[in-house]
Amino acid sequence: MLSDEVITADSAEAALWDAIVVPGEIKERLRNQAVLSLLVRPDLPFAVTALHGLCTLYGPPGTGKTTLARGLPAQVARYVGGGAVRRIEINPHGLMSAEHGQSQQRVSELLGEYVPGLASDGVPTVVILDEVESMVVARSAASLAANPADVHRATDAVLTALDLNAAEHPHLFFVATSNFTTALDEAFLSRSDAAIFVPLPGPDALREILASTLLTLAGKYPALGELARSSAMDRIAEAAHGLDGRRTRKVVFEALAQRLDTVLDPGSLTEGDLATAVRNAVAETSQSEVSHAAH
């Protein structure tokens, strides 16, 4: 449900940030918002800044939101005193309880007491709330069949904790990720100092993801480096339109798994193999979207 570690600028964790292929302005905005919050808020009262120390990353699944959040501390560490940033990761799914009233109590204890306690040494801290929609459901849309009283209580507990931490613990910076912003409570979104959309990758990003995956494998199978640098990658990337970043990386391995020859000798992967795997992945993604829309 929760993990806690301190990360420095030269940590191997920096690779998480580099591995995600998104428009540069997304990374810059997230990093800058975190640095601004951690540098400015300790010296100014909340009444002046109105900063809650909260950023929401939203967008389709598989676009790298969680990995960006996990890689953020290493990027921020070089700009803060001490050169280190604590990272606390929270899985909200583990907080929510079917027992009446338990979700509110757990949220209050974790965000209002336990997290500030972990960070009581004053070290700048990034707190990650992954898939936060399970924690701050939009109260205005809560179904009567889904025990809206508990939904209200849990959301109220999150908002109360955010307000408390904003005022009393300015060295805390929260990063929330969400695949479904329409499901998030309006009061939570209003507390976000920045809401950053992380889109599906475009053709250039798809090409970079595919090529970087092949080039990593080329260390052991050199022929894949030739494929990664070939003009065929432009056509394959265009055909991959609609895939998220996670599936795009996996599609290289799906291509390898299509034939026993390429399983035994990955270096024998061809343009045709990769193109076929991409077409199959796009077709499966489209079919899944149609199925979800039907339901």
From TrEMBL:
Q: Where's the AAA+ ATPase domain? A: 51-202
Q: Which UniProt keywords apply?
A: ATP-binding, Nucleotide-binding
Q: Which SUPFAM superfamilies match?
A: P-loop containing nucleoside triphosphate hydrolases (SSF52540)
Top-level division of the source organism's lineage? Bacteria
A single Pfam family it belongs to is AAA
Query: What PANTHER family does UniProt report for this protein, alphabetically?
Result: PACHYTENE CHECKPOINT PROTEIN 2, PACHYTENE CHECKPOINT PROTEIN 2 HOMOLOG
The protein here is known as: AAA family ATPase
Native species: Streptomyces desertarenae
The taxonomic lineage of its organism, from the top, reads: Bacteria, Bacillati, Actinomycetota, Actinomycetes, Kitasatosporales
